[in-house]
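[[Local backbone shapes]]
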Amino acid sequence: MVGADNMTSLVKGPKEAYLVLAEKGRLMVQESSLKFFGQCVMAGCYIGFGAHLAVVISGAMPGITDENPGLKKLIFAYLFPVNLVLITLTGGVLYTGTAVATPAAFFERKASLVDVLRCLVLSWVGNLLGSLVFAGFILWCDLLDDRSQASFLSIAEKKTSARFDVTFARGIGCNWMVSMAVLLSGQAQDMFGKVVAIYLPISTFVMLGFEHTPANFYLLGLTVEAGDMSVIDILLKNLLPTTLGNLVAGAMVVAGSYSYFFGNLGNTTISEAKEPFRRLQAKRSMGIESVIEDPENQPADDDPKRYSSRLSSSSTCAPSISSRISFMPEGEERPDCRQSQLCAIGLAA
């Protein structure tokens, strides 16, 4: 908030966050398959960092966690979201995020079904490859001691013991929360806000015991590489139903419902004037830099390009036009947004 007569919100509304998410999905399907796949592989590695951290630390406190399983879950859930913060804020791509962003783009008529399916396959395979590579790296580093290996095996046995439909339902619950983390982090416009927005839903799904496909790539993949489980067991008893559940949650529960509430499926009127800002926010989250215009050649005050160019400038700290709420007395001159100390950061996925 800046001044009594000029209030500025650093939180986007849900409609704007959803529309930027759909624009991000459009950028995903337009990205080259090789570059998109590389982002997915890197995200799979980051999943390994957070998952291994959570398992090793939560399993290394037998004196206080053996008789207190709730505390063990709490410790695991506190540490695990580190990977989602790394991925979301550095332009990585997860299968779970792709399962909500690209269907959103499809519902908003920004992507074809073929491109959506291509991105889903690439993200699934890329996350799997990255997770397995990192699992091999951990074994190479000799960072899997007997206690940690027992913890991984216990987790794997639990994840492969439920019925197909139960695991499928848990997959829905998981990506429901992950998709909320994506939307909430898109609403927040500063680093702290984004981290909190990611942590709350992610720690929720972890503590409740829902199933996350990319996380299971690492948690189960490491047990396979260590020789404790078979590929068929983890594929049929966990990865297949979890993958389907994550897709249903992202594409239907979140993207479908929010398109009905705020987008094309509900025939909602969408402001075309704000489209440049949505594109800019989506590009920033994908690591795509926009052209910075010469400050001496800025468009007129009522031209959206003015704000677009300012948001793309590294010297600009004004919030996006979609998040500005002004209460200006009539006739009073608009303050120069370049003097604001508030910084806008785009939607991360």
Notes: Residues 14-266 form a domain with the Glycerol uptake facilitator protein fold (CATH 1.20.1080.10). Confidence is low (pLDDT under 50) at residues 291-302, 304-349. The chain is about 65% helix and 0% strand. Residues 231-262 form the longest helix (32 residues).
